[in-house]
Write a structure and sequence with these properties.
mainly beta; about 10% helix; 4-stranded antiparallel β-sheet; about 375 residues
Length: about 375
């Protein structure tokens, strides 16, 4: 450097702004640059700012039809590219919970050992949770379902498990960083077998079959269940042609039965505008012709899935996505739709014969730089 050149000093707040715009893969490398960057990237406020600026993606759990162990892999859809993130090996794993702050739970619904992994697909860290508090081997175990929750008031992650024993349902909860599972005695009679969504410290479930068109919520902090008033006029949602999603910070139920059955081109969305007063809004969404899903070649599978990964948008994913490799995004404000085609990353092996998307195998996802080991106090 010449004598007349003055070293440039970049303020810390500018470094902070720059780093929060980078992908997790880059941030993990930059943690090794210096101790100052490591502390900055490891700070909870940095992780929160980074997630708020990260674009959402779609995770699809794909059963490996060639595996005798009934294992699954993940396919990630983001920015027009399909990738296959590395998933930790859990024999017979087939199910993945919804994402909470970048974490998912991996488990096998019909595994009597009730094994569960907590996994961050962005950092590839995973933690194996302790065994259940109840011996289930000789109790008529049928299946179990896992839901991940977060209490923002205490920054605590909890995993709720419901499992069946004969005709009854049993509930357990595990606080991340604690020693083991605890039994919940006052769980609902009806089992929570569908995917739950955690928002603002509560986990929500909706079901029209087992729960008879009802909605339940679980306060993650107080560990109490409560009923939620259903949307006016929503008691008729039918079959499996509907989804409960999070959109713009609200819970919503999207009913597309009439579209799938060729009755009309209208999707109905009920949004939970005010949880305190039980206020819902309804929006009728007319889909353009090119967004209407094609009939599937086999019965028993859904031809359409709905989620939200962008502000004010619904994303429609055809059940046979792995044949056509495209989705539709519908803007709720201007009522316009666009088609997004995905190319397959050359970094991955795409020789598998992918099946139709599974009933509960599709999730919205945002990257997270949070370290699982730091949360679990394992360092």
């Amino acid at each position: 450097m010449k004598n007349n050149q003055v070293p440039v000093s970049i303020p810390d707040d500018l470094f902070f702004e720059i780093l929060t715009c980078l992908p997790v893969k880059s941030l993990l490398r930059f943690k090794c640059v210096c101790q100052k960057w490591r502390y900055m990237i490891s700070d909870p406020s940095f992780a929160e700012a980074h997630r708020s600026r990260s674009a959402a993606s779609i995770l699809i759990s794909v059963p490996d039809m060639s595996s005798i162990y009934m294992m699954s892999s993940l396919v990630s859809l983001k920015d027009g590219e399909a990738r296959r993130p590395i998933v930790p090996v859990l024999p017979y794993h087939r199910n993945i919970s919804q994402s909470v702050n970048g974490f998912v739970c991996i488990y096998q619904q019909y595994d009597p050992s009730l094994r569960v992994l907590l996994y961050n697909p962005s950092t590839r860290e995973h933690v194996t949770l302790p065994q259940t508090a109840v011996a289930v081997a000789n109790l008529g175990f049928r299946f179990h379902c896992i839901t991940l929750g977060f209490d923002p008031s205490t920054k605590t992650y909890k995993i709720l498990r419901v499992w069946t024993r004969g005709e009854g349902f049993n509930y357990e909860i595990f606080t991340l960083g604690s020693g083991g599972w605890r039994i919940i005695d006052d769980g609902p009679f009806d089992g929570l077998t569908r995917k739950g969504i955690c928002l603002d410290g509560s986990i929500y479930w909706a079901d029209n079959l087992v729960m008879r068109n009802s909605i339940l919520a679980f306060d993650v902090g107080e560990e109490k269940f409560r009923s939620v008033p259903t949307p006016p006029g929503a008691l008729t949602w039918k079959g499996i042609e509907w989804d409960m999603i999070e959109i713009d910070g609200h819970i919503a139920i999207v009913d597309f039965h009439d579209v799938v059955e060729s009755i009309s081109n209208v999707i109905i969305m009920w949004k939970f505008e005010d949880p305190i007063n039980g206020v819902w809004s309804q929006k009728r969404i007319p889909l353009p012709e090119f967004c209407i899903p094609k009939p599937l070649p086999i019965t028993g599978h859904r031809p359409l899935f709905v989620t939200s990964i962008g502000s004010g948008e619904l994303t429609l994913i055809p059940g046979q996505f792995f044949s056509d490799w495209y989705v539709f995004h519908y803007n709720l404000e201007d009522e316009k739709a666009r088609k997004e085609v995905f190319f397959r990353s050359p970094e991955n092996d795409w020789n598998d014969d992918f099946p139709l998307i599974d009933f509960c195998g599709l999730y919205a996802y945002k990257e997270s730089v949070i370290s699982l080991r730091e949360i679990c106090r394992l360092l």
